[in-house]
Amino acid sequence: MLTLLESDVRRTQMEHAECDRTFMSRPGSLQNGTFNAPTFTNPVGQSRQCVYTFVAGPRQRVELVFTAFNLRGMHPE
């Protein structure tokens, strides 16, 4: 369960900021939902870091429950 829906995507000057996301609670909006990471192709030898920020309203709490979590690439040994 995702307590907050994506309602505002902030772009920063950071490298790879196109994948950063901000999820904000808004009065009168739904209080749960789902989200997916964007799909990008990275050049060989390059990595990508995406920052997800969840902002709760007063007396709210953010709860993330992952029902699936997949990573690409080689498993570290």
From TrEMBL:
| Keyword annotations from UniProtKB, A to Z | Disulfide bond
In terms of SUPFAM superfamilies, this protein maps to: Spermadhesin, CUB domain (SSF49854)
Is Disulfide bond given among the entry's keywords? yes
What are the CUB domain coordinates in residue numbering?
31-72
Pfam families, alphabetically? Answer: CUB
Name of the featured protein: (California timema) hypothetical protein
